[in-house]
Amino acid sequence: MNRIRVAVIMGGRSGEHPVSLKSGSGILNNLDYSMYAAVPVVILQDGRWLAGNSYTAYGESNKFSAEQFIANAGEPSLQIPLFLLEKESRPDIVFPIIHGKFGEDGALQGLLEMHDLPYVGSGVLGSAVAMHKRKAKELYIQNKIPTPDYSFYSRRQWRASTGTIISHIVEKLGLPVFIKSPEGGSSIGMGLAKTREALKELADSLFQDSDEVLFEKSVKGTEVSCGVLENADGELEALLPTEIVPVSSSFFDYKAKYEKGASKEITPARISESLTDKVRKTVVAAHQALGCRGLSRTDIIIVGESLYVLETNTLPGFTETSLLPQGAKAVGIGYSELLDRILRAAMNRS
Questions:
Q1: 90 and 184 share a domain?
Q2: Number of folded domains in the chain?
Q3: Phi/psi at 176 (nearest 5 deg)?
Q4: Domain boundary among 217, 240, 273
Q5: Is pLDDT at 255 greater than 60 in this prediction?
């Protein structure tokens, strides 16, 4: 039996590099190697590439370690490795699991398409609009999907009229207010400002690296996250929502996401059956509105019986304890089966 060849691309240039390495390691260590063989590919934070030179089976007796792979992989390449392009070693499918800029925003997807490499997840357009917080909100609104009220300003506008803009934001959105870089992920490039002084300080900081900053109304309620899977026949299935309860932070920030014990994640969420059904329908609607494919995970705030969509992730975390695998497990889909379903849906589409 010829096993399906999978290239798992991880790492990347964004601040989410360490999280991506963990996601890639989780995938490599949980594939069903009776059906698959895999090769690790790491993009270093300086943009250079490292690739394995053979398709391998990882697992209990041969655990993949990203740190060990990077240390032993040899000289990095400045471009996509020939191993992925040559006819005899090309993968049957690529699993890109790079979070954030240059991995989740359509850039990597475009590169893979240029080289005719089929891959898991959303295409160039779906990846780009889901990653851009303002564009995503515009599509939510066009498709009648509720999302917290917001304003956005360019760096030029901010520098020309800082005081006027701050007054407008406080009047329209109130305090505290979330301030976000439009293309950050894992709660990097964002913060919660509780005073006008903190608002100015945080916005000044974000405008140093971003041409545009988004200001979003802080909506207090129950935060849940819910995944969507595309089945082999193209049908979309919502998983069960996970309730997120930050323990050491005022919102689900980077620390709450990735530091052990910094948040409680409860699957299924402690909400009514009717609200669960509403969440599942809403995440499918968000997936479709943004043109996502394959998989996604959408974050929502619940206030009473109302839902507010915060954002949709096209390449969510893939450690064994990440939210998407948790939601899958709650409906009886184990980690290896989850990976199999995602890969087969991508191959069928290709």
A1: no
A2: 3
A3: -70, 165
A4: 217
A5: no
Strand-pairing partners, residue 244, are 223, 265
With 0-12 / 13-18 / 19 or more C-beta atoms within 10 angstroms meaning exposed / middle / buried, residue 200 is: middle
Q: Is 159 helix (H, G, I), strand (E, B) or coil?
A: helix
Confidence of residue 188 (pLDDT cuts 50, 70, 90): low
From the list 335, 318, 333, 326, the residue with the least C-alpha distance to 241 is 326
- In SS3 terms, 219-254 reads as CCCEEEEEEEEECCCCCEEECCCEEEEECCCCCCCH
Domain span including residue 77 = 4-119
125 found inside a domain: no
Beta bridge partners of 56: 38
Return the SS3 of 167: helix
The answer to whether 42 and 28 have CB atoms below 8 angstroms apart is: no
**124 occurs within a structural domain:** no
Give the count of beta carbons closer than 10 Å to the beta carbon of residue 270: 10
The residues pairing with 228 across neighbouring beta strands, listed in sequence order, are 238, 296
The answer to whether the predicted template modeling score (pTM) of the entire model surpasses 0.85 is yes
Last residue of one domain, picked from the residues 217, 242, 262: 217
